[in-house]
Amino acid sequence: MLTFWDLLFFLKKSYFFENRIETFAVSVVIIIKKTIKMKKTKQYVGLSLFAAVGLFLIAADHADAPAVTGNASDITDVYAFQGQDSNNLVFVVNSQGLLSPSATAMASFNENVLTEINIDNNNDNVEDLVIQAIKRGNKMYFFGPVAPGTAGTSSTIKTSAASGSVDISQYGQAPVIATNNGMKFFAGPRDDPFFFDLNQYKAILAGTATGFNNPGTDTFAGTNVLSTVIEVPKTALGTSSTVNVWVETKQKQ
């Protein structure tokens, strides 16, 4: 089964993070929340969602409010899917969409923006676990999965739950993946995997077209995003067979 990691190679890195308290408040949250069902038997056949729609969790949003559009707070897509190792789950958070090649070369993560993956494993729509990612220097640091200090719009980096770090990959260079304690980490530019014929969609809305063309035109072809990726063992997400996942970006206060 082709996965995100098939496009990259593996390289182990060490990590360090300064032990200090920093509080972040929400700047944008991806507007679609999805449910992932995980089979706990030894014979994994993938997330049950995959059976219905390619069993792939995805939410797309390429146009946010002016305060966050085009910057590190602007989430474009969220993906969650079973890893090539069926015991693992992969989370992908893409931001800063519609980057041209020249813009990609200049794009960067923001040290004042925390990416937080929220995981609800008891179906009460409140995060039970979080995975946090934040840039420091030329690295992306990851924390969790861990119970959050507080639920909701404010967060403190859980420095006591550091899980790993990775050198941020540079545009046009070979991607770097780090591994630590059964987890894998990546951060850097990627081709935008989202595809949509936006112009034809607008024509349909305007009443000048009745449907999509076959083949269509991918409006997002040739554009890039900044991706933050972590693969974790399912056992780190609790014992429930179902988890709800949503993602927030939060700015330092």
Question: Gist?
Answer:
This is DUF4331 domain-containing protein. With 253 residues, the protein is mainly β.
Q: Can you lay out the helices and strands and say which pair or pack?
A:
Elements: E1 23-29, E2 34-37, H1 48-53, E3 57-60, E4 75-82, E5 88-99, H2 101-106, E6 113-120, E7 129-136, E8 139-146, E9 154-156, E10 162-167, E11 178-180, E12 183-191, H3 198-206, E13 224-233, E14 242-252
Antiparallel strand pairs: 1-9, 1-14, 2-14, 3-4, 4-5, 5-13, 6-7, 6-14, 7-8, 8-10, 11-12, 12-13
Organism: Flavobacterium terrae
Protein name: DUF4331 domain-containing protein
Transmembrane segments: 15-32, 44-60
What report would you give on this structure?
By secondary structure, the chain is mainly beta. It has one domain (4-252). Helix content is 8%, strand content 40%. It is built from three helices and 14 strands. The chain has helices at 48-53, 101-106, 198-206; strands spanning 23-29, 34-37, 57-60, 75-82, 88-99, 113-120, 129-136, 139-146, 154-156, 162-167, 178-180, 183-191, 224-233, 242-252. The strands form two sheets. Strands 1, 2, 6, 7, 8, 9, 10 and 14 form an eight-stranded antiparallel sheet that branches. Strand 6 and strand 7 (129-136) form a beta hairpin. The longest helix has 9 residues, at 198-206.
